[in-house]
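To: structure subgroup
Subject: Chain for Friday's discussion

All,

I'm putting the inputs and outputs inline so they're searchable in the archive.
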Amino acid sequence: MQLFRDGALRGFALAELPDNGREIYTETDFKDLANTGANLVRVAIQLRKCNGCDHYDMPEADIRYAERILARGERYGFRVVLVLLATPWGNQSDYWDRESLKADIVKQWGQLARRLKTYPALQAYDLINEPVVPQPLPGRSAQTLWHELAEAIARELRTADPDTPLVVEPTPWGLPSSFWRTESLGMPGLVYSFHFYEPHGFTHQGLPDQPTAMTYPDKGWDKSRLSRAMDEARHFAAKHKVPIFVGEFSCVRWAPAGSCPRYLADAVSLFEAEGWGWAYHCWRCYQGWDAEVPEDVPQAQRAGYLPEHRRADSPSLLLLKEAMQRNRKGTRQ
């Protein structure tokens, strides 16, 4: 818990295990990750179900994937935050009005924690990735529904594992602005987390339904405005005296005119000033977020992975590596 309070965790999100069960990472990928100075990874474990089913399956392959990452964490010196991804997720999630599914999420988390809690590299359990209630129920707001489920998961995890920190994201989408409606669970050992992709039109430009070309800083967005976009997280942390962890942040590598490294530099500087740990999204995953693939790779290549284009001197990677050297020094800017 102290690592969260000290803002001493800096690293990368990892890709979840693909549906085909074939891990995209090799041992070399984790050696290279450790060499960046990262001391943290965040990885999703998926709950899967068939259409109309009243329970989830957590494939053994997904659990073993988490176990391999935890073992590598111990081997290479990084901590691991595990986050649950109940599919379909986001605004397609369909468990909010189905008590059997919510109860199964709670049950599955407890079983998982009992299996994984003894791994030395385990840092935290992140309850649900980017919770979204697509349609509130009559008389019950999205905040109420999420608070009830989060509390049930947290209590189950505390029964299974009394010591490992619990990470809670606000609804909707784990946005920093969502904290203004969030109530604390009022339990010990809680860390609150947000994902930072503001402004969305900049960080996601060129992806589906995001056609606008935008530079940074521009159109009223600069470091000062980025800072203001985090105000609700600051207010929540101060009010409830809880640590904040930035579970994801990123921008597409093809943002024009060298914009992405400038954006990342300002974001990281703001996180560091607050003493918030962070995880860049993501390590050697989809090439649009891959910090090792530079801006000048043809923009038409926007699908899949581009390992052949990764460069150790990519400006975004160099910026992140410089920031992560504070992990070794035990200091923050």
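Points worth raising on Friday:
DSSP finds ten helices and eight strands in the chain.
The mean pLDDT is 94.

D.
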